Amino acid sequence: MYENPRLLLDSSNPPEPGQIVWRSPSNLAIIKYWGKHGVQLPRNPSLSFTLSASCTDTALAYEFREDADNRIDLTFLFHGEENDAFKAKTLAYLESLLPQFPFLKQLKLKIQTGNSFPHSAGIASSASAMSALALCLCSLEDALFGTLPDPEGFDRKASWLARLGSGSACRSIFPHAAVWGVTSSVPGSSDEYAVPAGELMHPTFKDFHDDILIVSTREKSVSSRAGHALMEGNPYAEPRYIQAKTRLEQLLGALRRGDLEEFGKIAEDEALTLHALMMCSNPSYMLLEPGTVALIQKIRAWRADTKHPVYFSLDAGPNIHLLYPGDIVAEVRGWIEEDLKEHCVDGWFIQDWVGEGPEEM
Ligand code: DP6
Predict the structure, then answer these.
(1) How confident is the model at residue 221 (pLDDT cuts 50, 70, 90)?
(2) What is the model's pLDDT at position 271?
(3) Of all atoms in ligand 1, which is nearest to the CA of residue 126?
(4) Residue 316 alpha carbon, nearest atom of ligand 1
């Protein structure tokens, strides 16, 4: 889509060395992306809230290479240390982008990256990491060639690039919320990149909280990539894709109206459907832990007792995302301290909330 063989530097007029830094957040899907085809294309549209506290900072330093060949020259540091596995993944990603960014092989690149949350938290970092890197690459293109002057075009290309790294990452580019995947309810929506959806929401959702209760920090037994692949043989796959499309339309209505009850019902149904699909895969697997189920039961009971609009969601893992509006933060935090923390590893939970999206530093 963005192939451009002309994006090459002129060695008689090399650029000055420079550095670009972006901070990009994670996101929580309310309607889940689960199942893909082709080159990272989703089987159904998804909608996510953009978070704030869970984020990745990435610095990309560059310098013109006199001795350019066909390799990418990359130094890679994660939290200040070399990390062979992450470096290999990043290199493979950058190599796959050479048709769009042929100039990458003309540069000596140094990437220094780190997350605001410990890697061991069992929280997916691919969305924040890949979106931060994609934003750095778009800033680099613009710094060297001046080809992305329009902010909308810049964000779209960053979202498109992030998707190629990790599907869910394409939604982290936008403030408050984003939709990825074609749906007739959102004009301009695409399978290739996400589009902003914050303007489609009632203000109550713009200061929504998402406290992440860390039930386990163990590495997942089945990766998201393998989980997506297992959808191909899942007997419920086709009805699931139809259901996701219908639920997205219902969710957009609830978000527009500020209908917390309908929002919560859809969010919880989606989380449980995601895990039900894993259990119905062949081979079957389960990422929920006893603590996850205990927390779900406590959340339902507390909601029934207090009438407070608190709801749960789940990613592809056992940790609970506790979703609630900003005006009940004091009550909810007191309840977490008193009753929920006992199910968290070392009483650990991350306070997060819907945020303004990535920022260039
Ligand atoms: C359950 O985006 O991590 O979090 O495209 O293979 O990198 P890849 O998968 P990934 O899958 C995310 C799945 C999910 C739901 C979601 O974020 O929509």
Answers:
(1) confident
(2) 98
(3) 3
(4) 1
Residue-wise pLDDT for 98-113, tens only, equals 999 999 999 999 999 9
35 lines ligand 1 (CB under 6 A): no
Q: How far is CA 20 from the centre of its chain?
A: 21
Positions of CATH 3.30.70.890 in the chain: 203-350
pLDDT digits (tens, 9 = 90+) for 235-283: 999 999 999 999 999 999 999 999 999 999 999 999 999 999 999 999 9
DSSP 337: I
Return the best residue to mutate from 224, 232, 272, 281 for the ligand 1 pocket (most ligand atoms within 8 A of CB).
Answer: 224
Q: Is 225 in the pocket of ligand 1 (CB under 6 A)?
A: yes
Residue 122 has pLDDT above 80, yes or no: no
Work out which ligand 1 atom sits closest to the CA atom of 274. Answer: 1
All CATH 3.30.230.10 domain ranges of the chain, comma separated, are 18-200
Q: Are 350 and 121 in contact (CB under 8 A)?
A: yes
Which atom belonging to ligand 1 lies closest to the Cα atom of 46?
18
Helix axes 260-279, 237-257, angle to 10 degrees: 160
Q: Model confidence over 280-321: pLDDT tens digits?
A: 999 999 999 999 999 999 999 999 999 999 999 999 999 999
CATH class of the domain at 203-350: alpha beta
User: Closest Cα to residue 214, out of 54, 349, 353, 117?
Assistant: 349
Work out the average pLDDT over 346-351. Answer: 95
Q: Give 262 Cα–ligand 1 centroid separation in angstroms.
A: 24
Topology at the third CATH level for domain 18-200 = Ribosomal Protein S5; domain 2 (3.30.230)
Q: Is 112 in the pocket of ligand 1 (CB under 6 A)?
A: no
